[in-house]
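Subgroup meeting minutes
Present: P.N., E.W., G.H.
Scribe: E.W.

1. P.N. recapped why we're keeping a running log of single-chain structure predictions: easier to compare across weeks, and new members can see raw inputs and outputs side by side.
2. G.H. added today's entry (639 aa).
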Amino acid sequence: MNNHTLNVLDYLTIKETISTYAMTDSGKQRVLAIMPLSNVKQIQALLSETDEAAAILEKSSSVPISGLEGIEIIVKQFNKGVALRPHHFSQLLSFIEDGLKMKRFMRDKEMLAPRVSSYVNGIEELPEIAEEITRCIRNGRVDDMAGKELSKVRKQLAIANDRLKEKLNSIVKSPKYKSYLQDSIVSERGGRLCVSLKREYKGKIRGTILDASASGSTLYVEPEDAASVQDQINLLLSQEELEAEKILSYLTGLAESHEKQLLQSIEVMVHYDVLFAKAKYSRVIDGRAPAVHDQKMISLKNARHPLLGSKAVPLTIEIGKDFQALVITGPNTGGKTVVLKTVGLLVLMAQSGFHIPADKESSIGIYQQILLDIGDGQSIEQNLSTFSSHMTNIISILKKTNEYSLVLLDELGSGTDPGEGMGLASVILQKIHQKGATLLATTHYSEIKDFAEKEEGFINGSMDFDIETLQPTYKLKIGVGGESQAFSIALRLGMHPELIEKAHAITYKETKKYGKEQYDLYEKKELDKQISVNRYKKKQTKAKEAEVQTFIKGDNVLLKATNEHGIVYSGPDKGGNYTVFVKGTKQSINHKRIQLHISAEELYPEDYDFDIIFESAENRKKAAQMQKRHSNLTIERDQ
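Output recorded in log:
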């Protein structure tokens, strides 16, 4: 599927919408990377997954999917010679615990969703890592009890800090120094504790000046008695950092040794995220899985375009069984384009494993490509007119089309002279159908109705129009070609039915009764007639394919290339060619290019003199005279 098709059919918009229901960044990216498949079994498996995920959501609206906060980044830092930080291990523990929650959640879903629930077996419990992280990391730091040496150092640190504070508190609370100090609070400068001394009393407290206030009126002094204790504390802090780093390195190595299991658990969680994102979207659009098969048939029951929401008018359409090409005629603004986009989009969604907004009886054939010409498509860069742009696109479609293609053509033949446009539209439709594609096309040329009615494999369609409200209903009718609705409007506004019937006869060269009952009956007859004709033609085609048909002199045959009738004169020769009498001339035509219309046995009695048909009156007269021994006569015949 090319990007142009995906964009025009709003497939990319659908994926973006589904991605918003994913809880992880990886899940969102995974949804956006989904593309339609063409393997039936793979598609069926994807739809089955979505079915099961939707069933789980129906029973339990909340699924414990891990948000994977930081876990993927953590795994990427493995084996780089750098120990993870305490907050990394807190995130890792949270992920392991989320995996356990998912395993417990899926435990009773085996009957409801056997395939989806089984995926949870890919999540590793990793009890050793969980226990060690719990033992060693607490409140975002390495716990005191994580190691004996660390515990010993921290106890010494606590004692030293208490001694330091005691010494400094004795100074700030002493009446001896009260008048020298700016306040009775122990301060800190550069990681060392000190007291605030008024500048004018510099030297009254022996020690090291660490800093001064912005105004210079206050000096921050570390007393001599406190300096030795502070140095001891700094040494202990270095020892503490070293011991904590040993613990973090140990935990990092433990996590790295389970990298494969962690990656597998992440993959399972991301897959669940994608599955339930699809299931959540299915609930929003009231979606269902259509049946999928490798036959080139589409059957949609009450289907809706997912982006139209409640505004969407249900679409019921079946193509591929009794006919392979649907031509929707009639005026613009009736919803013809929406029909094409709905069919195309729902095929793409189904082939991607997404539920579609349609009844469960719907079914969709699998197509390797969807080719379309929808919209203006004018190219400023190429300086092409609208018509030229359409033709450039359609020529490309004609080259690419095959029996595995779904072709969607909107307003075929528009943008040029109506007569030429109608002619082009006819041959384009015919060629695409001959290539075996499934075809849906719209056009405003009413003459195309006659073409679709007569052409094998085609059927007419139109968008319904409410003659009571004089408004389109946007409902598709199959079997009846579209009209401008001018006659229906005139009838609704009070014009006498007889006048409208005469106008219809002049316009369409057919009779039609106007009035609701007659109109409904007409529609049903049209649909039945077209389906019957297509079924008959299919049987005829299959019969012709099953055996090579032979002809005898006098058979009335149809010339496939020109749609003309002729009468078999002689044949076949070694190449399978027959001499056929067509419009007064004899032509040599291969047996594959003619088909029996009416047999000679049905047309003529036994011992019928075919010279009456094949010979001119003059030649027959000469033949009679020659039989009477007028040997100087010659008979001239067309070769």
